[in-house]
Every structure is written in C-alpha cells, then in structure tokens.
From TrEMBL:
The keyword Flavoprotein applies. It comes from the Eukaryota. GO terms for molecular function: flavin adenine dinucleotide binding; oxidoreductase activity, acting on CH-OH group of donors. The keyword Flavoprotein applies. InterPro entries: FAD/NAD-bd_sf, GMC_OxRdtase, GMC_OxRdtase_N, GMC_OxRtase_C. This is GMC oxidoreductase. Residues 89-112, 282-296 form the Glucose-methanol-choline oxidoreductase N-terminal domain. Pfam families: GMC_oxred_C (PF05199), GMC_oxred_N (PF00732).
C-alpha cells in the first residue's frame, strides 16, 4: 500500500522493523481479528527472490544495499585496527533472509544466566516451549541419515507444527559432511546429544533453516508474513525508514508513545499507535531508533543534535556483545571439491544456478552444517590450573575497570567457561578458503587469489566478555550509527581464542579429515598465503594470528539489554522500555548475556515469548488504554 493509505488509519500496535523478530510479533498479534497491527520495514519485499531462496547463495546478498545495511565498525584495536563489515538484513525478513541458514541452540546455562540476572520467566525451561512453537523438524531420509549422522537429534525435543522449517539437505551431500563427525570422534570428542537437551558438546552436522519440500530458505518473511499477508487487520509498508517514535509526557509519569514518524522517498509521514509501539529493529537499529526518539544518554543525544530528552538512560546502545570468528584456512587436495571451483569458474557457477532454479539440486541447495562445540577441558586438559588462570584474568580486569560490569556478568560467564558441559568455542568447518584481510567487505572474505582448493576451520567465541556500544552521532535517521564492538578488549577473550585455535590445529591431524588436506614436505598443513608468517608455534604467536585473522560471526546482541536499570538495563523482563508506558523492544538487542552458536533460533524463541508478554499485558491492562 501507499504511505498515504498506510497513515490514513490508526493501529493498535505499530511494529518497527519487519525482520526476524518483527514479523513473528506482527503475525502472532494479528491472529486476533479484533486487533490492528502495522509493520514498518526499511527494506523492500523480496519474497521469491532466488538469491534469498537459494540456501547457499547468501554471499551474493552481502554488501548490496538492496539486501544489506552494509554496516561498518570503527577500527578495532584488538584486530590490528581493522574495520569490520557487518552484513545485516535490510529486506523483509531482516537478517533471517541473508544469513548462513545455520541452526543452533543456546545451552541450558546460557538461558539460566538471564534468569539469574533478575529476569524471571527467561530461563531455559521457560523458553523451551517457544523453541518448539516456531519450528517444524524434518528428519532425513533413510538414505541420508547414516551419511549425515543425525542420531544425536531427539525428535521428541523438536517442534512439529511451527512456521520455520528445519532440515538436512537431501539434494546435495559434500565430503566434509561425512568426514567431520568421524574426525571429531577420533579426536576424542564425546558422542553429542541433542542440543535441545541443554548441552551440545561434540562434533556433528547441525540442522539448517531450509524447507526440504521446496528446497528454499525458511525465514520470517516466508514463514510468518506470507501466509498471513491477506489479513485485513495486518498492514505492511516497506521502504519506510523510521525517523523516531513520538511521545506525549504528562507530569512525572512514564512517557506514552502516540505514533511513529517515518520517511518514504524523503517525505515524512506519521502513523498513529493506540496501544503499543514495538521496536524490532535489531541490535543496531533498535538503540538507534530509541536514541533518535529521545531515549538514551543525555550527553550522547545532545551531542547528536537530539534536544528533546524523553528518558535519560545511558544504558541505551551499551553492552554490545558479538561472537568473533577466527579463521584458519588450509589447502585441500584437488580431488575434494571446495567452493573455489564455483567462485572461479563462471560457467560452472551458471550450471549450478540452473540446477538449483530448474531442479532444486546441486551445491546451492546445501549450506554449512559441519560444526561442533568444545569445552575448556577438551581445549586445554589442565582444567584446575586453567580455572585459576581464568579467575586471575577476570579479577585483574575487575580491579582495573571496577565500573565496567555492574550486573556481575563476567564472573558468571567465567564460571560457565570452566564447566565441562559448556562450550568455550564453536567450531565451524567450511569447504572454502578465506582472506581475513577483506574483513571490511563481507562479500569478499571468501574470494581470494590463492590457486587450488581450500578449507577453513573457524573458531568462534561462545560468550565473549568484551563489550562495546552503538550510538548515533546525528539526528538524521539516514546516517549510520557508530558501531564499536570492542573486540578482544577483555583479555580473557583473546586468551581463550588463542588456546582454542591451538586445539583446532591439532584436530586437523585426525582422520578421515587429515588425509584430505594438502601437506608440506614436513607433513604440516599448508596455511593460506594471506597470513604469510608460517604456522604459529606457541600461544603468543597464536595471539598475533588471532588478532590478524578474526572477523565477526554476525551475531551482535545486547544494546537494549533486559536487566534491572541500575545494572545496565534498557528493558525490564516484560520487554518494556524503562521510562515508557507502552514501548517494548523485541529482538536480539535485549539479550543480556550471549549464548552459544548461531542465534536465529534464539530470536524466533524470544519473539514468540515476547508476543505472549504483550498479549498478557493487554489482558491485565498494564498500559492504561
């Protein structure tokens, strides 16, 4: 519809952001025909775009403004002053439309941490029903099952009727998928259980967000919006950039949102909200929208030219927490095909594209599944000694920066890292080489000039202690905020990553993976020439390698943290923004402490729970409407 038609009526709920979480919220709220819901999305509607639908075509979406916000961080001291490109979905469906399609699960302790920090109702057992609610699990065929080694999956823990389809690919199978689980077993990894049980230690092929019937990406636009697009009480406006939330404030009470001001083709419009405004912009856009609306640190807002202060809360935009991914790229024998075969040969790439579009087969159907979660005692067997080492690092940091962690999260996370049931890192095996020097352009990281076939073993953090921030520096909504993830600003992150990298190199010596790799004359793996300094021989050399070979895993969280306000919070456990009567945030920005693995499943689960909180609030009349 046109902007004029969209603004010709008022709505009970206005959802800012038609992304991963926003479309869940809109679909669930509009199930009630007596409720009117509007969605404002800055990107376009690209349903049926083959580049989004193709499970393994996501590299074609990054750094393109029609799909991607194309964010850039400030130079990062911890990664030799490199700027990092952050691909975030600027399209209906948000980042669920452009991600790797990898499907992980938070550990029990990850979510119980939230409860322990003062968020009642947000523990592992509280969220488990919402994980099942959003998904439909498709077991593999009898032919694929032994090859993919899916025995770890417990169907009783999985959803059977949710909108998001999860599966293993039946249309293509790669050598690394067969080699990976056996390699991990031979390296001494335990037999993994279903991550839904609360722990995921071990190596396995994990599920993907792909509909096996259509062999298309299953994402929020396809799963939550498209089936409900015809509802008379659900309105969507795309290519609409939110400028700010409008408030009225009377006396000493909380501010009440009355509507949302937005831009379409540079022209300003206002949509009226009768009940609530629900911010679902994600970890970058949600704090930006709050700050543009006058909610944030007074000093930050005044400096940016926002003079109308609605709520002074310096926590807005703070607590930015991301997973890092450190890539170890190595040469693979010519007989084992890797993505370089397609990336360097336009004719083969065209054939693969035709195979996908016409027959739904081939390499574009099969995204990354080979992953694992490794505990500290597996990375470094000297556990009692390591526990003391970790405690010392955390205590020394606390003494140097006594005000850096008012919620007490670092002690909580350090204790979790020491637990043999918890992962100190996630491992991801990719059949493609990486040149981390291209960190500023995500679409170029996996394009490189080294001849031959390459693989990459990525060591990804599970719960970093380093925290940065996102803040506006202009009241102009078209100007990107300043993003500083502060990678490796906490020394424990670098220490744990370097140790995990040393461990990951030893993993490559086990069969059947080892015999598929090229070796030098001394029998060592051959590292990608972009590094150029030889194999690191000790932890200090490995720390240099980590600094030069680390990028984002594209999992930023925390900038509108769900915590008590005095401990760094922006929203309470009902997701209500402090100082407002009817504004909530429902997306990854509310995550108070990070969780292991790929986070799309977490966002779907928290969005499903968020909707129940909104409905509960209206039933109880907490908003006074």
């Amino acid at each position: 519809m046109s902007a004029e038609e969209f603004t010709s009526k008022s709505y009970d709920y206005i959802v800012i952001g038609g992304g991963t979480a926003g479309l869940v919220v809109a679909a669930r709220l509009s199930e009630d025909p007596n409720v009117t819901v509007a969605v404002l999305e800055a990107g376009g509607n690209r349903l049926d775009d083959p580049l989004i639908d193709g499970p393994n075509l996501f590299l074609n979406l990054w750094d393109k403004p029609e799909y991607d916000w194309c964010y850039k961080t400030v130079p990062q001291k911890g990664t030799v002053n490199r700027v990092h490109g952050w691909a975030r979905g600027k399209v209906l469906g948000g980042s669920s439309a452009i991600n790797y399609n990898m499907f992980s699960m938070a550990s029990r302790q990850d979510l119980d941490n939230w409860k322990g920090l003062g968020n009642n109702g947000w523990g592992f057992d509280d969220l488990a029903p919402y994980y099942r609610k959003f998904e439909t699990y498709h077991p593999p065929s009898k032919i694929l099952s032994p090859k993919i080694n899916d025995k770890y999956v417990d169907p009783l823990l999985r959803g059977t009727s949710g909108p998001i389809q999860i599966s293993f690919c039946e249309a293509d199978f790669a050598w690394q998928q067969e080699a990976w689980p056996e390699t991990c077993v031979n390296a001494g990894y335990p037999t993994p259980g279903d991550p839904r049980s609360g722990s995921a230690i071990g190596g396995f092929n994990q599920l993907t967000t792909v509909d096996p019937k259509t062999v298309k990406r299953s994402y929020s636009a396809r799963a939550y919006y498209e089936p409900n697009a015809g509802r008379e009480n659900l309105s969507l406006l795309t290519n609409a950039l939110v400028e700010k939330i409008q408030f009225e404030k009377g006396g000493s009470g909380d501010a009440t949102a009355t509507g949302v001001k937005f831009l379409v083709d540079g022209q300003a419009y206002t949509a009226k909200a009768n009940k609530e405004v629900i911010v679902c912009g994600g970890t970058i856009n949600s704090p930006q929208i709050l700050e543009l609306s006058g909610i944030g640190s007074t000093s930050v807002l005044h400096k940016a030219g926002v003079d109308d202060i609605v709520v002074d809360n310096p926590n807005v935009g703070e607590n930015l927490n991301d997973h890092t991914a450190t890539g170890l790229s190595f040469a693979v024998k010519d007989e084992y095909p890797t993505a370089e075969v397609i990336l360097r040969n336009p004719e083969i790439a065209q054939q693969a594209m035709e195979a996908y579009i016409q027959h739904k087969v081939g390499p574009f159907t099969n995204t990354i599944t080979t992953t694992g979660f490794t505990s500290l005692d597996m990375v470094d067997g000297k556990l009692p000694e390591m526990q003391k080492h970790i405690q010392t690092i955390v205590e020394d940091f606390q003494k140097a920066y006594p005000n850096a962690d008012p919620a007490g999260r670092n002690v909580l996370l350090a204790r979790q890292l020491m637990d043999p049931k918890e992962a100190v890192c996630q491992l991801v095996l990719l059949a493609i080489g990486a040149d981390i020097g291209n960190a500023g352009l995500p679409s170029k990281i996996f394009t490189h000039d080294a001849p031959g076939n390459w693989g990459t073993l990525a060591v990804c953090s599970t719960r970093s202690l380093s925290r940065g921030n996102v803040h506006i520096e202009s009241s102009d909504p078209t100007k990107q905020p300043v993003i500083d993830p502060a990678y490796f600003s906490h020394p424990l992150d670098m220490d744990m990553t370097a140790r995990a990298m040393i461990h990951s190199m030893s993993l490559l010596t086990y069969e059947p993976l080892s015999s598929k790799l090229k070796k030098d004359s001394e029998g060592n793996i051959i590292l990608h020439p972009s590094w150029g300094k030889g194999v690191p021989k000790n932890i200090e050399e490995m720390k240099d390698f980590v600094a030069a070979n680390t990028i984002t895993e594209y999992h930023p969280v925390g900038t509108c943290a769900m915590l008590p306000k005095e401990k760094g919070g922006v929203v309470d456990s009902k997701l209500k923004v402090y100082g407002t009567s009817n504004v909530r945030v429902v997306d990854a920005s509310i995550v108070p402490t990070h969780v292991q693995g790929n986070i799309v499943s977490l966002v779907y689960a928290l969005a499903e729970k968020g909707v129940d909180l909104i409905k509960e609030g209206q039933t109880n009349g907490v908003n006074g409407h």
